[in-house]
């Protein structure tokens, strides 16, 4: 597909709409090429920290749903990192042409400078404001305009799962047990020292 091409799914409700996101969520950019490099480095650090957290949560036998939610966030972050690191190096641009894999002239960008491919578009409302409305009458009305990818969906699903099911994931008795065990370890260490 070329930039801007779309394929209709589910009638007019869903679309595969090909864009390349140069920055963060919703196409926000952060300081040009250096900002993109910093964003990718931040993502790599976040993935490292999240991997460490997941490893520790497995050790303490955290709720399985919580582990799944963290894994969804990690998988989504990795997907976006892979795009931003490699996509610009292995593909040429898609403006007015279909991108080629490993073109002889090289990709459109350097390492860590690739765009993230977004393609899922589900405008739930796509209409116009009624003409009688002051200031807005006749203007376009669209709800849920973001174009996103599966990695973004994975991250969002993981985060929302943690927020919605935190009462199940972090039961009060389990939290008290972890705190008690931590406190006992500290008391035992102090007794040995003293």
Mean pLDDT: 83
DSSP helix count? Answer: 5
- From the helix content, strand content and strand pairing, which structural class follows? alpha+beta
Regions with little confidence, pLDDT below 50 for 5+ residues: none
- Record the strand order, biggest sheet: 1-2-3-6
Give a short account of the largest sheet: 4 strands, antiparallel
> What is the domain total for the residues?
1
Distance between the termini: 70 Å
3D shape: globular
Task: Please provide a written account of the structure.
The longest helix has 28 residues, at 32-59. The chain has a four-stranded antiparallel β-sheet. A two-stranded antiparallel sheet has the order 4-5. The chain starts with 5 loop residues before the first strand and ends with a helix. It is an alpha+beta fold and 194 residues long. It has five helices and six strands; from the N terminus they run ββααββββααα. The chain has one domain. The model has no long low-confidence stretch (mean pLDDT 83).
């Amino acid at each position: 597909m070329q930039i801007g091409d779309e394929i209709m799914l589910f009638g007019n409700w869903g679309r595969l709409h090909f864009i390349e996101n140069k920055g963060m969520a919703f196409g926000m950019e952060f300081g040009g090429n250096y900002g993109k490099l910093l964003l990718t480095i931040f993502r790599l650090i976040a993935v490292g920290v999240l991997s460490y957290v997941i490893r520790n949560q497995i050790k303490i036998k955290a709720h399985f749903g919580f582990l799944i939610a963290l894994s969804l966030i990690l998988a989504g972050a990795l997907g976006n990192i892979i795009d931003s690191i490699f996509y610009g190096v292995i593909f040429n641009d898609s403006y007015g042409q279909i991108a080629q894999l490993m073109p002889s002239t090289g990709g459109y960008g350097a390492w860590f400078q690739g765009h993230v491919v977004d393609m899922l578009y589900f405008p739930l409302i796509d209409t116009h404001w009624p003409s009688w409305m002051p200031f807005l009458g006749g203007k376009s009305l669209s709800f849920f305009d973001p174009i996103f990818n599966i990695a973004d969906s994975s991250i969002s699903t993981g985060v929302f799962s943690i927020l919605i099911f935190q009462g199940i994931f972090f039961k009060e008795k389990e939290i008290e047990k972890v705190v008690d065990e931590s406190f006992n370890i500290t008391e035992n260490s102090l007794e040995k020292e003293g």
